């Protein structure tokens, strides 16, 4: 008997065409603007180790296929066939793998793909090995240090340079409830070093990339990755986490979908 993948938990709200929301590392369903429900029937899933899915841990490395199977099983559970897909950071990279799987077997299901601050994948083996070594060091910190200590260090990385000290402390406090062992397993299992290079993925549906004007690394990645027919929205006054920094401007980018 084939064992079914475990279901991811989260929140569903709103009305309109279904939209699947995948948060970034350390986030959960609460990160997304409530106003999304004015435009879409939203299903915001919590990834393994996070939020309402904190007791669920991935068992494989790499873990992309495992999490994609969990997402697909959860969509089936909610009887969602065709849907818009929105992913942020790690959620964007998982959205890419989900879009790749659907393009091969069920291309009609994806209505649109929106990727916020998302890396398309590394281009050579040396880069991947360097990233795996860096992520292994973070994995070790997650396994051995107090949550508050490694979380503070995490939010002091250059990609989060736009955070003020009070905002950084708020982010650390908000993430203390996640399961560190399950977080560490997902983090290493979905390392950028394990990710497929999907920058040449072609899709039949509309695709847009969103980046913050203050996030030069991911803004430049999006500019280099942009394919004919795709859109790239650069949001002023925002860094890596656009939907949190500028929710109104973020929501405005989704209206034409």
Task: Specify the overall morphology.
Answer: globular
- Percent in helix: 25-40%
Note the beta-strand portion.
15-25%
Number of strands: 7
End-to-end span in angstroms?
Answer: 41 Å
How can the largest sheet be summarized? 7 strands, mixed
Structural class: alpha/beta
What value does the average pLDDT take?
95
Q: What integer value in Å does the Rg equal?
A: 17 Å
Number of helices: 9
Write the H/E string, N to C: EEEHEHEHHHHEHEHH
Q: Outline the low-pLDDT stretches.
A: none
Largest sheet: spatial strand order: 1-3-2-4-5-6-7
Give the arrangement of secondary structure elements:
Blueprint: E1 10-14, E2 17-22, E3 40-45, H1 64-77, E4 83-88, H2 90-105, E5 110-116, H3 125-144, H4 147-154, H5 165-174, H6 180-189, E6 207-212, H7 216-225, E7 231-235, H8 242-245, H9 247-254
Parallel strand pairs: 2-3, 2-4, 4-5, 5-6, 6-7
Antiparallel strand pairs: 1-3
Helix pairs in contact: 1-2, 3-6
Can you characterise this structure?
- Helices cover 39% and strands 16% of the residues.
- With 257 residues, the chain is an alpha/beta fold.
- α1 crosses α2 (90-105).
- It is globular and about 45 Å long.
- The model has no long low-confidence stretch (mean pLDDT 95).
Top keywords for this entry?
alpha/beta; seven-stranded mixed beta sheet; globular; 257 residues
Q: What is the structure about, briefly put?
A:
The chain has helices at residues 64-77, 90-105, 125-144, 147-154, 165-174, 180-189, 216-225, 242-245, 247-254; strands spanning 10-14, 17-22, 40-45, 83-88, 110-116, 207-212, 231-235. The chain is α/β, with parallel strands linked by helices and 257 residues long.
